[in-house]
Amino acid sequence: MADWILYGMPGSLYTAKARSYLRKQGLSVEERAPGDPRFTGEIIPVTGRWIVPVLQDPDGAIVQDGADIIDHVEARGAAVRSAYPADPVARVISLIFELFGGEGLLRPAMHYRWNFDADNLPFLERDFVNALFPGADAATRAGVFARSSGLMRKAAVGFGVTPDSFAAVEASYLDFLDRFDAHLAAYPYLLGDAPTIGDYGLIAPLHAHLSRDPHPSALMKRRALHVWRWVERMTTRDDDAGEYLAVSPPALTALASPTLAALLGFVAEDYLPEAEAMVAWLNAWLSEQPADRLAGPVDRSVGRMTFPWRGLALTVMVMPYRLWLLQRIQDAADVLDAEQAAALAGLLGPAGLSSLLSARVSRRIERRAQREWWAA
Ligand SMILES: N[C@@H](CCC(=O)N[C@@H](CS)C(=O)NCC(=O)O)C(=O)O
Predict the structure, then answer these.
(1) CATH code that applies to domain 4-75
(2) CB 50 near ligand 1, within 6 Å
(3) C-alpha 229: how far from chain center
C-alpha cells in the first residue's frame, strides 16, 4: 500500500496540479476516486463538502486544496524538488503563473470541454461516471453524468463563457498556446530546468481539459507540440525531456527570455483586468458587510461582477480563493530587497503587469480548516 493517498479524478482540473507535484516528488501515491466509499466515509466529514483534490498523508492528516497540498508536502520535508524557486524574483514570477494557470485559463478549459459535445461527450460521460460512481448501471450512469455535467456547464457561464465570448475565448487561447509553445521550444519547464509552482498552476487546465478531452487534445497536438510534450513531462516522475539534448538551460536564463516576457504580457492582457476588477469589487463589497457576515468560512463565490475583457463586458463570479492566490504573489514580492524588487519591476513593467502587485484588498484572506476565511 502507498504511503500517500490522493483523492481526485482524471478529468479534474485541480487534481492535476496536486498529482503532477506529487509525481515529481517521486512519492508513492495511491489515487482514489471520489466514488470510493472511503471518500464519503472518511474525507467528506473532514472537508465538510464534496471537493477534490484531497491528500491523506502517511500520518492520516487530510488536506484539501492544490496549493495547500503542495505546501503540506514541502512543510513535511517530503519534497525532493521544491515547487518554490530558490531565487526570490523567480519565485514571484512562478506564483503569478500559479494564479493565471489555475484561474485565468478556466475560460478556455471550460469552453473546450463543454461546447464541443460531438467530440467530447462520449469520452466525458465514461470518464466522469467511472470516477464518480464506479460500476454504476446504465440508468444510473446517465443520471450521474446529467447532474455533474449540468453543474459544470453552469459553472462555465459563471466564468464568463457564453456564446458572446466563445470567439474571444478561442482567439485568446490560441494566442496563449502559441506563446507557451515558443517558450517551451527552448525550455523544458516554465523557468528552465525544473518544474515550479507556476508549472503546477498551468498544468491544472492544460492537463485534464485542454490536453485530455478529445477536441482540445487534437488542437493542442496539431498546434503546439511543445506544450503537448510539456503536459506529458508534467505527468511523469522524471523529466522526459530528451529533445532538449540534456542541455539544461539555467532557470535564470528562462526568467530573462523574450518568450517569458511574451507570456507575462499575455497575463497582463488576459487576466490583469479581471484581477483588478475583482480587487475593486471586493473592496467595495467588504466595506458594506456587517462584521458577523465576515466571521464564518468564505463562500466560494460572493457575487458577480462585470469587467471589460477583450472588447466585451464579461460577467463572472467573484471568487475569494483567487484573492488568496494573489496574496501569495504579493507576499513573495513584499519580502524582496531593493535590488530584487528592481529586477522584478524590470520584468513586470515592460509586460504591463506591475499593478498586479499593487492591486490589494483591504482585508486579508487566509486558509485554515480546509476553507478560506477573512482575516481578523
Ligand atoms: N481551490 C480548490 C478548488 C478545487 C475544485 O474546485 N475542485 C473541483 C474539481 S476540479 C471540485 O471538486 N468541484 C466540486 C464542487 O465545487 O462542487 C483546489 O485548488 O483544490
Answers:
(1) 3.40.30.10
(2) yes
(3) 19
